[in-house]
Design a protein that fits this description.
BirA Bifunctional Protein, domain 2; 286 residues; Octanoyltrans_LipM/LipL; 8-stranded mixed beta sheet; alpha/beta
């Protein structure tokens, strides 16, 4: 496997400080545009930070819930915005104690990156980011967490992060959400109730988790460190720089902005369908 974490060049994009921060759809549209930029060679690789406040991010599988609108109504009544992301998986919470970021890497004949390799690259970066800790970060599914997956990251059996991937031709985005601080019990209870209302105990051909809020914890508590989202962002950049990577502020080329606009319109259409109760008609990405 190509070593993506040493002696490479990364364009850095931070949606918490640039013009995209005011619109929640924009984070996902920019993410798609960055995959295309790396895939077509316009960017060598990219690191995209996209922390979001007060949002429940649904996966496309969640749109198959038989009583989806009841679940969405509950989330909105709980003062959470709701958005369906442009990738698979299940519901996660985004708030001011959660860090979302993506590694966007080339996936070409010269530099092939398997799905398992992609997960391993992200896990390795997180381990390097917290190399000063004596805790072991494990990767396996925490089945009663929200958005469970084979590469859930945990410490002492408590999940603090989940990883997903999104792939276009010649490019891949490895995305992670990390619970840094805040009320993780409340987050877990919110998603548990969402599924209770969205399912009403009906059996479906899709599996939705029975969420146990105790299955997850904040990284700050697991490591015994007073961490903030901004502090973790700095740790990630420091770890990459220490490995000899060049970190450059990402440019917004005409092509990138055009791809962003195309992706934004798709995100907008997808979320309009949810509000119109047409969730099962969501288009497949090409």
């Amino acid at each position: 496997m190509t070593n993506y974490l040493d002696n490479n060049t990364y364009y850095i994009y931070d949606s918490s400080v640039d013009a995209f921060k005011e619109d929640k759809l924009s984070h996902f549209a920019l993410g798609d545009a960055l995959i295309r930029a790396v895939g077509n060679g316009e960017a060598p690789a990219a690191l995209h930070f996209w922390p979001i406040d007060n949002l429940v991010i649904l996966g496309m599988m969640d749109t198959r819930l038989p009583y989806l609108q009841d679940g969405i109504r509950f989330l909105r009544d709980s003062q959470s915005d709701v958005l369906v992301r442009n990738a698979g998986g299940l519901a996660v919470v985004a708030d001011d104690g959660i860090l979302n970021f993506s590694l966007v890497l080339p996936d070409t004949e010269k530099c092939k990156l398997s799905i398992n390799d992609g997960y391993t690259v992200m896990k390795t970066l997180i381990e390097q980011t917290f190399a000063d800790s004596n805790k072991t970060i494990a990767a396996f599914e925490i089945s009663d967490s929200y958005c469970p997956g084979d590469f859930d990251l945990s410490i002492d059996g408590k999940k603090f992060a989940g990883i997903a991937q999104r792939r276009f031709k010649n490019g891949v985005s490895i995305m992670i959400y990390m619970s840094i601080n805040g009320d993780q019990q409340k987050r877990g209870a919110l998603i548990r109730r969402f599924y209770e209302l969205g399912l009403r105990q009906e059996t479906t051909r899709w599996h939705f988790p029975t969420v146990n809020p105790d299955s997850m914890a904040n990284l700050s508590d697991l490591l015994g460190m007073p961490l903030t989202v901004d502090a973790v962002k700095e740790r990630i950049l420091t770890a990459l720089a220490a490995n000899g990577n060049a970190l450059i502020e990402g440019p917004y080329s005409t092509k990138l902005l055009a791809d962003y606009q195309t992706a934004y319109e798709k995100m907008k259409k997808r979320n309009e369908q949810i509000d119109e109760n047409k969730a099962t008609g969501i288009e497949q990405e090409k």
